[in-house]
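Recap from last week: sequence in, structure out.
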Amino acid sequence: MDVFEAIADPNRRKIIALLRRGELPAGALVDSLDISQPGVSKHLKCLREAGVVKVRGDGQRRLYRIEHRKLAEVDAWLEPYRQFWGVKLDKLNRHLEREQ
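Predicted C-alpha cells:
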C-alpha cells in the first residue's frame, strides 16, 4: 500500500489528524474515535506498512507518531496543483479588482 492509498480512507485520515498533536498510544486513538480497537489496529497496520506512521515500544504500550517524510510525498505531489490554482486565483483576483 502506498501513501495515497493509506490516506484515502477517512478513518486513517482521522488517526493522522490525532497524531498531529504528537505521539499517542493505540488506546488513546480508540478512545478518540468511533472505531473498535481491532478496527483501529487494522488502520494503524495499514498506516505503518505505508510508512505514514512509526511505532515504538514504551514498556507495554506502543506509541504511534506521524512519519513526516512519507507525508512529504503527498505535499510534493500537490505542489504543481498549488501553483496551477495560485495562478488562476491571482488572475481572478485581478479581474475582480478591475471590475470594482
